[in-house]
Write a structure and sequence with these properties.
Blueprint (H helix, E strand, L loop, with lengths): L1 E2 L11 H4 L6 E2 L2 H8 L3
Parallel strand pairs: 1-2
Length: 39
């Protein structure tokens, strides 16, 4: 889970490192809660 503002920084990470990792970009803590506290 990363702040949406850091999306531009993901371009600096090589694809071989990002492979297999799922990034969730969020704007608010409410967005975090929706991701973390699912049924």
């Amino acid at each position: 889970i990363l702040p949406k503002e850091n999306q531009k920084d993901l371009n600096e990470i090589p694809d071989y490192i990002k492979k297999g990792i799922q990034f969730h970009l969020v704007k608010t803590m409410n967005d975090v809660e929706k991701l973390v506290f699912t049924e």
